[in-house]
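Reviewers asked in the last cycle whether our approach scales beyond single polypeptides. To address this, we selected a multi-component target totalling 626 residues and predicted its structure end to end. The input consisted of the following lines:
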Amino acid sequence: MSRSVLIALGGNAILQHKEKGTSEEQFENVRKTCEEMVRLVAEGYRIAITHGNGPQVGDILLKNEIAKNTLPAMPLDVCGAESQGMIGYMMQQSMYNELRKAGLNIPVATVLTQTLVRKDDPAFQSPTKPIGPFYTAMEASRLRVEKGWTVINDSGRGYRRVVPSPIPASITEGSVIKELFNQGTIVIACGGGGVPVLADENGALQGVEAVIDKDHGAALLATLISADILLILTDVEKVALNYGRPNQKDIDDMTTGEAKMYLAEGHFPGGSMGPKVESAIRFLEAGGERAIITSIGRALDALKGKAGTTIYR
Amino acid sequence: MSRSVLIALGGNAILQHKEKGTSEEQFENVRKTCEEMVRLVAEGYRIAITHGNGPQVGDILLKNEIAKNTLPAMPLDVCGAESQGMIGYMMQQSMYNELRKAGLNIPVATVLTQTLVRKDDPAFQSPTKPIGPFYTAMEASRLRVEKGWTVINDSGRGYRRVVPSPIPASITEGSVIKELFNQGTIVIACGGGGVPVLADENGALQGVEAVIDKDHGAALLATLISADILLILTDVEKVALNYGRPNQKDIDDMTTGEAKMYLAEGHFPGGSMGPKVESAIRFLEAGGERAIITSIGRALDALKGKAGTTIYR
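The resulting structure, written as structure tokens, was:
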């Protein structure tokens, strides 16, 4: 039986660090990424896709900021939904084209996704995730008062708003995504971790000014659709101990127990490898078969056990 | 057996003419619209939803224009996809909340939609649809040369870009939308008529700088999902002959033959009632049972034959 894989694409699948972010650049990166993903499909893997949205939602927020004297600025949840539309479009078009090129006739669709978070998530007490443009110290003071934002000095580069990054509790469109996936559609969903929403006492949803780590969203989505494998694609081929130091040691495979130990020892920094390893553990503890962290170019080899870092229960 | 209805929402379902376009205004309008649509669902109608995106994509284009010296401006197809994300999010959240309030447990999801148009559509020879910001005469000249745009003097209010408005040929995500609809999901799709794409000689899709009339998109979508009824909601209760003149005469019902005659007589202006009546005819000639044009508040009465204008084969 064909194995099912939830692919979590990092930002570099859509935009490289040195690029400006033109639509041509993004389309070309997405096209290359889709070419690699279609290789998996051609080998019989059933895939669903999720992706980050950091640079895209950042640009949308900044455009809103620059134009704010002319047009009402949209809040973060709406901007996140816009970025899902933008990236989903580029990706579903590119997947369609690359599948067709490979002679594969498989439907592709993006499902706009909301992700429920909990009001009592401790993240709401300590916002940590920088978003949007840089501000001057004076603007920062004004925004703290006027909008009630938390604005911090970001590594001396200027002042930046930080928002909470809560753990996703459930995916509102989960049943729809699962149904489509089970029927053989390549679903693109939960982009940027999904638009974070809170439920009020009556269960009514409302967007909340927060961001969800896309790898945490991916772990939840992979569990929800009962994927066999969570495949997290990033810009390194393997997870490493002592990363970037002379004694760096790449990891071929590890158990969730080992992964937890390395996490506790501080091998995997927050905001980069940390959430990826945590998400792998969460997926495996919820019943997943294996989680793989590798680069896009090594994805197929990694699925065959010949590359990347595989994490087992 | 329950009747199936494709609802085509006009711009006023999301934003009223006098409003600025804040997210609060849009959410509140969408909420009220969803409240009305849920009344239909509560009476047993199975619905799918499509919607216009004019003001939203206009604002996104203008934000891109204002910020263009800082950030790369996105082309029209990408902005259209963003607007589908924005409006789809507001609508699926509001539908979820209103359904829940009514005690109905029905999944809702937005499927990002591309609409295929034909290269040889005569619309590409004569762009007519104004989009985006106003320009000065000097900017207009520059844009004509630099970008190859068609820029016209828009009713003396300034210069504006016009793009082609081709007739939609097929909906790329059609099979997915139909599948979800048949399984009972309230699908929101084909927003703004769908992102227009052209296929090259190999069948590969690429976005094209054009806009699709949302009512034409709605007719195609309604046919595709085999809806019994196409329900076009706008800001008047009935279609009228001699609209706005002393001898105005509201129409309760008409056949497609009568509708064609009135169209030929010039009763329904292009850009407003014209495309709605044309779409109704196209839907009916493709096998639809009836098409209704009415206001949001009269939708349920119109389905029962007590309001609005009904068009039959």
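The longest strand of chain A covers residues 129-135. We regard this as preliminary and will revisit it once experimental data from Aim 1 are available.
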